[in-house]
Specification:
This protein has 327 residues and is α+β, with helices and mostly antiparallel strands. The protein folds into 2 domains: 37-179, Fructose-1,6-Bisphosphatase, subunit A, domain 1 (Fructose-1,6-Bisphosphatase, Chain A, domain 1); 188-326, D-Maltodextrin-Binding Protein, domain 2 (3-Layer(aba) Sandwich). Helices cover 28% and strands 24% of the residues. It is built from 7 helices and 17 strands. It has helices spanning 41-63, 84-100, 129-134, 201-214, 227-236, 249-261, 312-321, and strands spanning 21-26, 29-34, 73-74, 81-82, 105-108, 119-127, 140-147, 150-157, 164-168, 172-175, 178-179, 192-194, 220-222, 241-245, 265-268, 280-283, 303-307. Strands 1-2-16-15-17-14-12-13 form an 8-stranded mixed sheet, with helices on one face. Helix 1 (41-63) runs antiparallel to helix 2 (84-100) and helix 5 packs parallel to helix 6. The chain is globular, with a radius of gyration of 18 Å. It starts with 20 loop residues before the first strand and ends in a 6-residue tail after the last helix.
Length: 327
């Protein structure tokens, strides 16, 4: 088991922020903007908590016996599986967050939760459960902190490789402490695009049509089975972009801020329970991508999109032309 040094974390996180988030009207929805260029110190505290509990959960998961791939329960479809490990890791995450941040709401994949406090923790105990069950190493624990409907801090921990991805609003993104930056690519035709598929057969048909239309027009396509790690890969420049429909809040709550803080153009759906319009929330943390809001609109209400800034607008145009909004 990895030995980690626990950061100094206050029992109750500070309520004051340097600056504040504002939702500014934009085409088809809102642009998320930070009102002050200084670092949000509340987000830094939340990041330390996210890192701590994600690492603890990853260590715990690594030591659990891997269940038989056929000895699992299902949720929305026969391919939407949940193992005892998912339930156990989420219970640990909830317990630790209750200790470190008493009173904060926790929303998780397995046990839900109410998003009714100033800070909401959105957790996925195993993002990539199918990979986990089959012995594929591409899965992770995801812990995101959300304030005012925006992911402001997050950590994604990989049990197999030991990698820790994390970010805080205005403070950049790192993997194992090394700064992350989205790729500098400028030609969509050379780009490597990550994607994924729904658990519902009918939705998969539409997703397959979209990929088939995109494939001749991009460099290549990858499907790894973990939305959180795909977005982290965009942050690292390993993938040039990621586009998927039908993911859930816990799949991207942490990774969205990681990709955003690495300079990617990021579009995510509205959090559950948010008022309409539900089509667009675009996030940008640098001048390179701050003006891309309208350009990456119209991809579909539940689309998650992260792309290197040099191709984001062109790829969104291409995805729309290939029928992304109808998936």
């Amino acid at each position: 088991m990895r030995q980690t040094v626990a950061p100094q974390v206050q029992t109750v996180l500070p309520s004051g922020c340097v600056g504040h988030w504002r939702l500014r009207p934009a085409v088809h929805g809102f642009m998320v903007a930070w009102s002050d260029d200084r670092v949000d110190h509340t987000a830094l505290s939340l990041r330390r908590v996210a890192e701590r509990v994600a690492l603890e959960a990853a260590d715990y998961l690594r030591d659990l016996p891997r269940p038989d791939a056929v000895a699992v329960s299902t949720k929305s479809s026969p391919t939407d599986v949940v193992s005892a490990a998912d339930t156990a890791v989420e219970a640990l995450l909830r317990h630790r967050l209750a200790e470190l941040c008493p009173g904060d709401a926790v929303v998780g994949e397995e046990d839900g939760g109410a998003a009714d406090t100033d800070t909401i923790w959105v957790v996925d105990p195993i993002d990539g459960t199918v990979n986990y069950l089959h012995g594929l190493p591409w899965y992770a624990v995801s812990v995101g902190a959300v304030r005012d409907g925006v992911s402001v801090a997050g950590a994604v921990a990989e049990p197999v490789s030991g990698r820790l991805w994390s970010a805080a609003a205005g403070a950049g993104a790192t993997c194992d402490g090394q700064p992350l930056r989205a790729s500098a690519i400028s030609d969509v035709a050379l780009s490597v695009l990550g994607t994924g598929f729904s658990y519902r057969a009918q939705r998969r048909v539409g997703q397959a049509r979209l990929v088939a239309a995109l494939l001749p027009r991009v460099g290549d396509v990858r499907r790894t089975g973990s939305a959180a790690l795909d977005m982290c890969a965009v942050a690292a420049g390993w993938l040039d972009a990621y586009l998927e429909h039908g993911t859930n809040w816990w799949d991207w709550a942490a990774a969205a801020v990681i990709a955003r803080e690495a300079g990617a153009a990021v579009r995510v759906p509205r959090p559950p329970g948010s008022p309409p319009p539900a089509d667009e929330v675009r996030t940008a943390s640098s001048s390179d991508v701050a003006g891309l809001g309208a350009d990456i609109a119209g991809l579909g209400a539940d689309a998650v999109f992260a792309a290197a800034p040099g191709i984001a607008a062109d790829l969104a145009v291409l995805a729309r032309a290939c029928g992304a909004a109808a998936v």
